[in-house]
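User: quick one - fold this with D-glutamic acid bound?
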Amino acid sequence: MDNRPIGVFDSGLGGLTAMRKLVEAMPNEDLIYLGDTGRVPYGGRSKDTIIKYARQDIEFLLGHDIKAIVVACGTVSTVALEQISGEYDTPIFGVVEPTAWKAAKLTASGRIGIIGTVNSVNSGAYDRAIQRFRPGSYTFSKACPLFVPLVENGRVNRGDRVIELVVEEYLSELREQEIDTLILGCTHYPLLSDVISDFMGSGVKLVSPGEETAEYLIKKLRQADALAQPDRPGRHRYYVTDSTEGFERLASLFMDSDISGEVSQTELF
Ligand code: DGL
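Assistant: Sure. Structure tokens for the protein plus D-glutamic acid:
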């Protein structure tokens, strides 16, 4: 048993897709979420900058005596993690492997789409992982840089003409490729699942990196006998680097509970 918290971080709201899964599946675990909302988006920044931000995010969470970290950010996972994860003793879980594994398992045709930030798509990390899990697959990728700012502004719902237009603009090419599985390779994108699914059609299965990685972490903690005691209520804290207000409102909607008393502003060094 290990009652220390699990740390989860992202540039903004996207990592809540992992957080929600962890809250639902592991009500006994203490969870600490960091959203670097003062510097979102990470997706188009240089590799050096992303590595610098990732180290600061990890070191902030390590300051809370955590037992594991979920890098609930596709950009950090694809661009920085390989280089920096060896610097820390605490186990760090990125989103690429669990997500690619799930997509490889779900696809029948072997035709898999990948959408993500510019850096994640250019890294080719999801494509390489898919080839390892299902050699001979065809992957088709597309960067969707406008999705993150739209999600951060709450433009996520069916019927919102702006997000529907942007989804059409980005995903039309992919729809023509007859994929049967689509990796939402940035953790923000599952907040757009309804709109994306409406556009791609019911024959395309969507894979959420945050959720898959949360499931993978649970499995690993169970195997290592490192879950929290089952008879305790888990506590949740959220930290953001910009003001708490906008985050509290959107995060409460997404988490389906009022988290406003649990959010604090912090600085990263
Ligand atoms: N949610 C993140 C990702 O998965 C970050 C997006 C961004 O900050 O550009 O890539």
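One thing worth noting: The chain is about 45% helix and 15% strand.
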